[in-house]
Every structure is written in structure tokens, then in C-alpha cells.
Amino acid sequence: MKIRSFRLRILVLSVVVSGLVILGFGAWTWTMIHDLTGIHRLDSELVALASGQASAPADGRAWRAFEDALARLSEADPTHQLAFAVLSRTGENIYRSAPWPEDLLPRLGHPENSPPHPRTVFLNASAWRVALQHRPERSLIVAADMGPYLAHAHRLQAAFLLALVMALGCAGGGAWFLAWQAVRPLTALIEATEGITAQALEQRIPQRGLGDEFDQLIQVFNEMLERLERSFHHATRFSADAAHELKTPLTILQGQLEQALQEAPVGSPLQQNLGRLLEEVQRLKVIIRRLLLLSLADAGKIRVSTATLQLDELVAQLIEDVEILAPDVKVEQEIGDGMAVEADSALLQQAIQNLVNNAIKYNVEHGKIRFQLFRTGEMIRLAVANTSEGIPEQERGQIFRRFYRADPAHSRKVDGVGLGLSLSREILRAHGGKLWLADAPEGWVMFVMELPATPVGDASSDRREGSNHVTSGS
Amino acid sequence: MKILVVEDEKQIADFVKKGLTEQGFLVELCDHGDEGLARMMDTPYDAVVLDIMLPGRDGLSILKQFRKKGHTTPVILLTARSELDERIEGLNTGADDYMTKPFYVEELTARLHAVMRRSSEEQMSLLQAGDLTVNVLTREVKRGGAPVKLTSREFSLLEYLMRNPGRVYTRTQMLEHVWGYDFDPSTNLVDVHIQRLRKKVSPDKENPLIETIRGVGYRIRKDGEG
Asked: Residue B136 is part of a domain; what is its CATH number?
């Protein structure tokens, strides 16, 4: 059996161990209970009395004197209620003391068959400890009432059982407390760790000031967080600084190139060269912008300034672009009306353009692209699917990694820096939405993005909601 | 129109001045934050172009101080670092617009025209080239008085080119402006749209309004040329 909770494991383990110890001790004590009642002392007394009297002269006077002596003993100690009897060889009763239990003799059987060691004989209402001494002509029996001894033993047993139950209870409670104590710092550690994300790296776990192993663990953990936070901040600061440092010379470069381009003779080779250089500057700009956005995303600092945006209109425009960019590709669309979202239009447009670009780049010849824009509850979903040679199973998980580019065989015809999908995902996240690679039928690849719809009534339009019109374009 | 450009990077300031002067602006330069604020307070400029990273007082605090004194002169911020945050902060502080470095001068010109129109209600909204007129407010396009119907992308493209007749634009510049900055540059989107535009606004193939600059891009024919 596997116990998943560490606390429960400690609890069970300590209850089992302490329970076993207590039970072992209990069993040993149980056997000692009769010793504890002083029965051995009684036995030796009985034997001494019997053997002493057996050696004494056998006449009525001596027996009466013995009876008196026993009576005095009984009077001195109420737990010693003694009696004695003398039997002939044939088992007839020769003498018996005054307090002699009637039923005792028949229970004894023939005295000669009885062992000499003291034993307990139970009668209807009482129990007697009996010692015998045999002589050739007679047998002498000394008996003591066991009543007080048995009562004592019962009291001991009851007390002992009570103590056993209490000990087991204490052991269980102690084990529970111990387990709780042992696990408590761990629970605190878990809670604190759960609160730590890339956006909240400044959190620390409070020390308990005990200097024990858990405090050491917490300290080591905090030190690790410290290092992580420092290097993380270095990294984001570096990206921001680098972007800034790059942007100033880039602004100069672009400005001067542009100026030179305008001044160069129209259509001259110089102007064409300047044009090409300007395009390269443009490419550099896009890369820097993307890197900066990603570093902001890592630091949880992508802030979007939102306005109501008609997603259906945006998608319709993009579909027009697809028809120009990839005339071979057949576009299918199911675009619902009135798809208003609160979004940063520049950023969201960029995210959708990335998806559309991918759908074109990784399409097959004379393939298809399908756009579906619809509402699900409070969310609006845009699914962009394209016919494809498929993404191998092992690559599906990597597709959102930075600088990852699917299909190396075709990478030459593909332009871009491999930041598109991871950037799109961050943009959606900053909008409170998400982007994922969905399961699609064989021969298709489908990306789905989802973001919160503008609450009804808020939207500038209250057009037919959820009603889809289906058109099929070329 | 008198413009103050507060920018400490001399080479940026130079090409901004050159570009704006070509567009008929009167440009003054300033390379220090405190001096910039003082001049903004003293001189009634038509607009101010303000860099955020400056020696002395930074751009955002200049703007804050300037607005606190009740000045309404339009201000365009230039930002470089963590652009999104500054953009939001800048607009909250009272900037009329922002430009992210690196930027094109003609984009800045367009924004300047826009913010000044916004502030003074001045009608800078009618663009003209040849027999073509473009009203940027009503989005109406007329060729020889007859209305021409354009899609929104065609209109944006035409408006962009018409703002600076004679200026050459590369395809990526047009992509950045009309389609959003991150579109894949290796596309023929611009060419297709230019062809469509030509059919609608200047069917005269001998003397096209939209000229192709071989190996570079396109421009609107400047009156008196070609």
C-alpha cells in the first residue's frame, strides 16, 4: 500500500512502533500480575506453616494451639484468612479449624494424589490457596482465603488495561502532533513556492528562527531564489538596455539612409542599393521589436492599451491579403458577425498575422486555409487551419519555443526569425486569452486563439450575435 | 509652422530637422531637457517633438510640468526603451501622440499634421495631386470631381503616398504603415494594391500618377515633374 501523504506515513509509522513497544511491555507485565499481588509470599508462608505443624506432635492440644495461632495471624492481617485441617491416611477428617470451608475437602480429592505445591481451589463462592503436607499417618492442609488476593489482582488488571489504552491513545496523539510538526514547515515551503513565478520572483520564505534542518532548507531555497531573481532581472534589464542601445543607432541609420535615398538620382543603382539597405534595417527593426516584446513578456510587463476592436473586420481584411499573397491557396471561411474584443490592435493584429503567415508558409501546393471565428460563451475563438504535411508528434510540443522553426527542409523558402508563435502566445496571454495547437484532421494543422469577448452592451455594435454566415471564397 | 525638436542625439535631430524643413516646417533644435522646457514655456510653438531620454530633465517630466502650467501645444513623444509602457505613460501624461524609434521622418510629418489639425481645427485634410483629391477626414477620393471608391487599405496606401508627393517609399515602408509593422516583408501585397489603385485613380499609363521607382518602390508624381 502506498501512502501519498508524508504526514500520514509518519503518523502510521510512529503509532505502529510505539504500539508494539507498549503491547510487548503489557504482555510481560500481565504475566507478572500475580507476583505483584504477593501470592508467592503467601505460598511460602502456607508451606512453612504446614510443614512446621506436620513435624509438631499430633494431638488435639497442639492442633488447637495452632488454630489459635492462625486466628491471631488472621486478626493481625485481614488479608490472611487462614484455616487448617488434618486428615487421616484414609482421608477421614481428624481435625479442622473453626473457619473451614465446607466444600473444600471433596474438591481436593484424595490428599495423597495431590501435589505438595500450593494451588488454588475454586469453590462456588470463594477461592482458596491450599498447601498440603503428607506424613505416613496423616495429611495436614493449610488453606488461605484467596478473596482479597483475587480482588487485588482484578483491580490491578483493570488499572493496567486502562493504562494500556491510555498509553496507546497518547502514542497516537503524540505521533499525530509529531507528524504535524514535522510536516508544517514543508507545507509552508510548498505554499510559498507555489506563489513564486517569473512575475513574483521577489518573494521569500520566512525563516522560523529555530536553526534546524528546515531553516537550513529555507535558507538555501531563499538563496537560490535570490540568485534566480538577480540573473532574471539582469536578463530582462539587458534586453531592455540592448534594445535601447540598438534603437538609437538604428534610428540614425534609418533616417540617414532614407534621406540619402530621397536625394539619390531616381532609378540609379545607388538608389537601389540604398533601398535594399533600408529593407535590411527594416528587418533588423522587426527582430529587435520582437525580442524586446518577448523580454517584456518574461518580466510579465507586457501592458496592453485596449480599445474595442471588431475582430471579424480585421480577419476579413487579412483574408483579402491571403488571396493576394497566396493566390493558389483556397480560402474557406466561417466568420460570425459582431465579434468585438477589447484589444491592443497593433499587438493583436501582429499575433493573427503570425498565424496567417504560418498557414501560408507551411501549406502544401494548391492547399487550403480555413478561418473560423465564433463565440463560445464569454470568449471569442479564432481557428486558423491549413492543409499541411503535418507536424510530427515529437515536434508538436516544441512549436512554441523561441527560434524554433518547423520543417527544416523548407526553411530556405521561409523567411522569419522563429519568434512568431512564441510571441503570438505571449500577446494572447497579455490579453487574458490563449493560443494553442489544436487537434486537427489528418493532413491539417490548426491553431486556435481565444480571448474574452467585449461584454454585450459595451460593444459599439449590437449586431446579430452568434449568427454565422458561411461563405466560400477562392 | 514652428516646431521645437528636443533631442540630444545630434544625428537624429539633424535628419529630423532636414526632413521637416523639406516639408515646410520651421524647425528649432534643442539638446537639453531643462533648456527644452524653458523654451517650450517661453515660445509659442505650433508643436513640440520631445525625446524621452534627455540630459537634465527627462521628456515625461517636462511634459508633466508643461501641461501643469496649462499649455495645450501639441506634443509628440519619441520613445525607445520599453516602448509599450512609455507609450501608455506618455499618453496619460498628456502627449498627443508618440513615435517609436526607429521612425521615418514622413511618419512624424503625418503625425504632426494630424495633432496640429486636432488642436487648431485647421483644415489640412485635403490632399491634392494632379486631378486627384483625397479628403482624409471624410475619406472621400475624387478624380476630376468624380468620386472613386477605395477599400480601406487602398485608401490608407494612397493617403500615405499623397502626403509627400515626390518622396520615394520602399515596399516595406508601405507595409509597415498600412498593414502593421510586423508583416513578413517578402510579399507582393504592396504591388498588387498599387496596381489596383492605379486602375482606379490614374488609368493613364503614359503619365501615371503613381510612379514605380525601379528596384526601390513607389512615389506620387510631383506636380511640375515628369
From this structure: 1.10.10.10
